[in-house]
């Protein structure tokens, strides 16, 4: 979705249409360190089945302690000689106690790491670990996250020696790992924010439920949607696109469940709206960004079969209701000049994200043009046809399908739809 800054810029330019906290790195003095001497010394040898059984038993105890709220039992799974680790793991424990956990378990993938480093007394082991966490009715399956953990053997006993956020191999969605959080649950919507944030979890939950009801009413969809809204600084920053490098106000995505070892995807676990914590106050004061994301949530059935100008266009159209471009005026000459310089064409998937402000604004114009001609029901018929043909031909983002779908549903060419949208945009200069 557009960055909130661009959303503010569009408001300033268009109408104004009038009518992620990363954990400390290796150079951080508070980073998790082995303070008791175990290190890459002595002989390396293959991890034995006995070692694996011991690590798996340790993770089973850890998971049970987190689910049942047994702090002492959980802390006993940690390396006692690593105070930095223990501080961060206390935060993880406290965060998870605030969430409606139904199920938590871990899996090990040792296909890439079966070597232990160190002496026979003190050794270290860093397998791939997968955390599987199910959150009540918010997720239909446990969300599976790759977590960067390492283990140390102290006097024959395996313990957790480290856990960190890895930017290069980040989990799908894990806001409970990092800094302290607040959580609020309403219906099947769970909201998490940073502890002590200017806009807390309860306030953001109220705004989300209101926006969800409004959006569902416009789309004639039920509003009993399960959803996680993450407005924490934990994890990756919210990026709009690699091409622009801009931060987004919010993004929506589906998280997946895998088998225990992380090898095979078993299906979707749930839907997440990741809100940029820097813009949460604006999200609450002006809920258009929330409504945009909630359109994607409610229309998630289409996956990635539709062109981006179709899915982002309907999201912008609904988000700005009842404001229409046809009744708006640009108040900044820069917008008018940018529109004049823009090529009159439907934005392809390959070009999307190079100019985010105009990508989203032109998509809104294309959607408004089509809906004003034939209504929202026909627009959804177009989306259904893109979805059906995209799945049948195994293509994404409507590649190769646009001329045929537009001709069948509207009797129009892509050039005619593009010109209709740009006529609305040019009308802003009046």
Keywords, separated by commas or semicolons:
430 residues; alpha+beta; Nuclear Transport Factor 2, Chain: A; seven-stranded antiparallel sheet; five-stranded mixed sheet; 12 strands; disordered N terminus
How would you summarize this macromolecular structure in one to three sentences?
With 430 residues, this protein is of the alpha+beta class.
List the SSEs and their pairings:
Blueprint: H1 4-14, E1 45-46, H2 49-68, H3 71-75, H4 83-97, E2 101-109, E3 115-118, E4 122-125, E5 128-135, E6 143-154, E7 157-164, E8 181-186, E9 189-194, H5 201-219, E10 227-231, E11 250-258, E12 265-275, H6 280-285, H7 288-298, H8 308-319, H9 333-341, H10 356-393, H11 402-410, H12 414-426
Parallel strand pairs: 9-10, 10-12
Antiparallel strand pairs: 1-3, 2-5, 3-4, 4-6, 5-6, 6-7, 8-9, 11-12
Helix pairs in contact: 5-7, 7-8, 8-10, 10-11, 10-12
